[in-house]
Amino acid sequence: xxxxxxxxxxxxxxxxxxxxxxxxxxxxxxxxxxxxxxxxxxxxxxxxxxxxxxxxxxxxxxxxxxxxxxxxxxxxxxxxxxxxxxxxxxxxxxxxxxxxxxxxxxxxxxxxxxxxxxxxxxxxxxxxxxxxxxx
Length: 135
Fold this sequence. Notes:
Layout: H1 13-54, H2 81-91, H3 123-134
Helix pairs in contact: 1-2
């Protein structure tokens, strides 16, 4: 005797196909949303760098910019970031102090240590220096 089992919760093929389509559309929407958020973060980061280099005192001033007008290049940079910050500096000069150029700082000149002569030392200093040399 052969027993056939029929599941009561079996889903017809059309409902299963609709479920997969809905999941795929939801995944695509999430991917698009994630890409949009990532590009917005890149825009903000690039403009923050340009603002710091331009000497912006408070980075909250970047909220005055319209980020929808900012475009990203293929490599993830904002090609006109310095121009955008320069325009902001012209219109809102109170947001900026002096320009920062920390990447171009000059290194101090190298100087060899100068030996002190015995004539320039007090007697106590001379005795201490002599004792360290004799050890």
